[in-house]
Write a structure and sequence with these properties.
The chain is mainly beta. It contains one helix and six strands. The chain has a four-stranded antiparallel beta sheet, with no helix packed on it. Strands 5-6 form a two-stranded antiparallel ribbon.
Amino acid sequence: MFPQMVQDLCNWEVSSAVGGTEAIFATAEGKVICWGGSVAGELALGADGPRGQRNPGINFEFSNWHVLKAAAGYAHAAFLARPDDGFDPEGAPEFEPPAPRAAKVGAARGAKRGAKRGGRGGKGGKRGRRK
């Protein structure tokens, strides 16, 4: 098996290409071109869409989005996109991650468990000895 040119992609400037059993391309124009297997919905063809696509085609589920990047793995695909309606990223709200929680102290709990069993698995250190 040798690499082959895909004629359907000749007029597109591809910005991101991923795949496995599926092939997903994000173009510079913000479109998604995909084909291949879609066992778990990797091609994002919609809930009522086909389970796969034999030939490359534009995914119209993203018609209102400008897709910047695509990523895929086993049984999933992810897209980095923005709305295609003149969205201004400068006016978007800034993401604020939640404050980190205090770490739970588990060392004391583990020490109590070891003490109950004698610290050696409950056998008192005689495991494996012959008489």
